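Lecture 7, part B: from sequences to assemblies.

Below are the input chains for today's worked example.
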Amino acid sequence: AQSVTQLGSHVSVSEGALVLLRCNYSSSVPPYLFWYVQYPNQGLQLLLKYTSAATLVKGINGFEAEFKKSETSFHLTKPSAHMSDAAEYFCAVSRSAGRRALTFGSGTRLQVQP
Amino acid sequence: EADIYQTPRYLVIGTGKKITLECSQTMGHDKMYWYQQDPGMELHLIHYSYGVNSTEKGDLSSESTVSRIRTEHFPLTLESARPSHTSQYLCASSESGQGAGNTIYFGEGSWLTVV
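Predicted structure of the full complex, as structure tokens:
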């Protein structure tokens, strides 16, 4: 079975500071990994995804994530936080067979302080 | 931008009422999904469809039912709503093929409150 664990339900950074949101996965087969962002009262928007190509994946809004097999991690980073980055971020893993629906982590709420 | 639409966005209804949450996508995607999300919590898959006339229950047990008569339409129905059904329901869709790396596109969600 595949699963993801997001470390830290709340992360607070200052505007302009580095953003680091942690995600570790568990999978018996090479995973497909995703980061989604959810703004208040909205659905989920794809930030980026890893599908076994380059291990460093660049996404929208200046975010990127690095797939590290040795650490079973897929942490999301952004060099400089903006106020508009405040949202809920979800890491997800896709099953390699069967339904191939996403299994989500519990989410990390990012606060950006002025 | 994904072309997947959910109605209503917000609904407050009384206990025992029947409700249907509508979901439509214009991308021609075969796979569609319903996720349930309580405020501040993770998403749980409650229904899944491979295509027309193909539906399955998800990971989280739900008293809701779904149908897939047309590719673009995947409505979710609660025959008799209860306060425990209060939640956000997110519809999603994805292409077939390309294995498990396909992007899943989400609608904006339907917030249901049962009083």
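Note for the exam: The two ends of chain A are 41 Å apart (CA to CA). Keep this in mind when comparing with the next example.
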